[in-house]
Amino acid sequence: MAIEVRKVKSKANLNTFIGFFTDLYKNCNYASIPLHFDELLTLSKDKNPAHKHCKSQYWVAFRDGIPVGRIAAIINRKEYEKTGEAIARFGWFDFIDNKEVSQALMQTAIDWLKIENITQLHGPLGFSDFDRQGMLIEGFDKPGTFATIYNHAYYTKHMEHLGFSKSTDWVEYEINTEDLSSSLQRIDRLCKYTSERYGFKIFELKSRKQLKKHIKSIFELLNISYNELYGFTQLSKEQIKHYTDMFINLVNLDFLSLVQNSTGKLIGFGLSIPSFTHASQKAKGKLLPLGWYHFLRALKKNDTLDLYLVAVHPDYQNKGVNALLINHTAKNAMKFGIKRTETNIELEDNNKVQNMWRFFDSHQHKRRRCFIKEI
Fold it and tell me: What 3-state DSSP class applies to 119?
């Protein structure tokens, strides 16, 4: 039976698009299943403010009436303006192990992008850095995190068949945090030196009300410090509000680390969240009827921590701010009985962050890639 690629035109179509990943990975022990509610918020053009500067289209591939793949094509005007190149993104690219399916999906996306005068295509990427990005190419036997894409090993062969090549890689580290006493002794000395020389200090928030007062400066710092990173585009005021509403109730204040300079200016922050991987698998992408319980339990009782974001103002890099952030996070990890920490993705050449892992019992265990192609 021939492959039929259908454009997503309705909410029912979009639910099929979102549900395909859950069905494809329902028996996989390593995949973290995105919440359908979150995916709807991201992909719906009337709910995600990123669509104000992004043009997108989604497709689902069918064989014998059964979904066998999906893809999204995204034109981010901010990226277009920043790079000066007619570049677009693909994302949410999932498919059964059949090259006819992946070829049909990708060609459909490329045909649409060519009409829009696009000449380069890279991905997998989302609308912003807060969306999952990077195709897994190493670490298929390791549990994915809630913030990252998990994909089967056969995807890489399909990308090669489609004529894509490497644009950049991200790496991930696993840190043994069961006993950090010796590591913390070394970091404490560095933190003491940093604080005495520059006057930097950790600022701890005591309530969500207090967090709301500082959330604007946190996102402003993220925009500044991430500006030169691969694929990053500045978050608008509407996007900042969108992400604040999504994440503010999930933040455990003990795992939000803020660093101020001697005048009280925010110069660095780090955000970690207890792992939602097992909770997402049990919830199967849905909060109701009992999915919420698994996520709530993961927040309260967990031995694995995911490092989500680390940002340091460019003017204060290489001055020990990272050490203060990691030190604060590590001490709270010990307090909460965390035994294992996932760094999540960091660019392979981001030595400033990776140098911090040398203090710990750590090893690189996953790698993911952004592919690119002239179209």
Answer: coil
Whether 345 contacts 149, CB under 8 Å:
no
pLDDT of residue 290: 85
Instruction: Say what the pLDDT of residue 358 is.
Output: 84
Collapsed DSSP state (helix, strand, coil) of residue 276? coil
Half-sphere exposure of 235 (CA within 13 A, CB side): 24
For strand 304-312 and strand 340-342, is the pairing parallel, antiparallel, or unpaired? parallel
pLDDT band for position 109 (cuts 50, 70, 90): very high
Torsion, CA 186, CA 191, CA 193, CA 195, rounded to 10: -170
pLDDT category, 58, cuts 50, 70, 90?
very high
Contact between residue 76 and residue 133 where contact means Cβ atoms under 8 Å apart: no
196 burial via Cβ count (<10 Å: 0-12, 13-18, 19+) = exposed
Q: Are strands 120-123 and 87-95 parallel, antiparallel or unpaired?
A: parallel
Contact 141, 328 (CB under 8 A): no
Residue-level pLDDT at 347: 94
Reference 88, options 108, 104, 74, 103; nearest CA is 74
Structure tokens at 336: 């909460």
Predicted confidence band of residue 273 (pLDDT cuts 50, 70, 90): very high
Q: What is the rounded CA–CA span in Å between residue 34 and residue 136?
A: 16
Residues 6+ apart with CB under 8 A from 129: 226, 229, 231, 232
